[in-house]
Amino acid sequence: MTQANRIRVAVYLAAVVYVLAPLWILITARSPATDSVTFYSCVVIFLCFTMVARWDIVGCGLRFGFLLILLMIAYKRGGWLPPAIVLALLLFVELWLQGSSKEKPTQLSFPLAGGTYYVAHGGSLRLLNHHRVSKSQAYALDIVRLNSIGMRAVGVYPKRLDRYRIFGDLLYSPCSGVVTTVVTDLPDLLPGEMDKKHIAGNHVVIQLDGKEIYIGLAHLMQGSVTVKAGERVSTGQPIGRVGNSGNTTEPHLHIHAKRGGNPTSMLGGAGVPMRFGRSPLIRNSIVRHVQPPRTDFVAEAEGPSA
Question: How confident is the prediction along the chain (306 residues), in pLDDT tens digits per residue?
Fold first, then answer.
């Protein structure tokens, strides 16, 4: 079995688990024979599962549908008190998963616009963010775009790149600074065909004005980058498009901030937490209908279209 097929099988198996596991927990919680301890144990397991699973694969609406069913079951068990306890536990789990870093986060502008975006990987816990194994990528985010039914693609794991909603989306600079490196000539790969030699694929690294902090944006579309190394960019300036180059299983935007290390590399240095707006972004965070931070740059970045 090829690597691409192994990944495809794993994604389909995950999709089955995301649908069946909550149903099994809800059926257990609904059983008349379930005592209060068992019921609330089911609630905690259910809430943790729904906060950790990647709902963009099967549809984010399904997650909220399951939660609504849980609240209805809780209400039938004892009126308004059990649903109130469920919501309190949900808030607790949310705050626990958000965590916090001792370091002050770097404030950035969200680098995508014109759609509904979803964080597939992100957060201070490895449970939510597979990048935590890397020092420089400790606070990295993987971002996809959702379609009208809350899925990142047409299908669970389609083979065509244009089936992924984010593929070809215009990318805006999240900060003002100087571009330290650009790669733009690597091919966009079919989902599952990963380039482990060029991990970041096509990418841009920007040094923030007046700071030794570097922002890396990776897996960009071949030939789409419109800036050059040494060029100064402003927040909101179009700099390229989202693609599927490098060591990636499917189209998405990878972004992380680091301090120190090689200025021309995505890797090295120490990861720095990022903040887009008031709330931290973790897995399952949704950013809706973002408007371009600047409009006077749009004409400069026609680039390849999706």
Answer: 788 899 999 999 999 999 999 999 999 999 988 899 999 999 999 999 999 999 999 999 999 999 999 999 999 998 999 999 999 999 999 988 887 677 889 999 999 999 999 999 999 889 999 999 999 999 999 999 999 999 999 999 999 999 999 999 999 999 999 999 999 999 999 999 999 999 999 999 999 998 999 999 999 999 999 999 999 999 999 999 999 999 999 999 999 999 999 999 999 999 999 999 888 899 999 999 777 765 455 434 443 333
Tell whether pTM > 0.85. yes
Q: How far is CA 229 from the centre of its chain?
A: 27
Annotate the chain with DSSP letters as a single string: --HHHHHHHHHHHHHHHHHHHHHHHHHHHH-TT--HHHHHHHHHHHHHHHHHS-TTTT-HHHHHHHHHHHHHHHHHHHTTHHHHHHHHHHHHHHHHHH---SSPPEE---S--SSEEEEEE-SSSTTT-GGGGSSTTTT-EEEEEE-TTS-SBSSSS-SSGGGBTTTT-EEE-SS-EEEEEEE--SPPPPTT---SSSTT-EEEEEEETTSSEEEEEEEEPTT-----TT-EE-TT-EEEEB---SS-SSS-EEEEEEESS-TT-SSSSEEE-EESSSSPP-TT-EEESPPPS-STTGGG------
Residues 6+ apart with CB under 8 A from 143: 112, 117, 118, 119, 120, 166, 252, 253, 254, 255
Fold category of 106-300 in CATH: Glucose Permease (Domain IIA) (2.70.70)
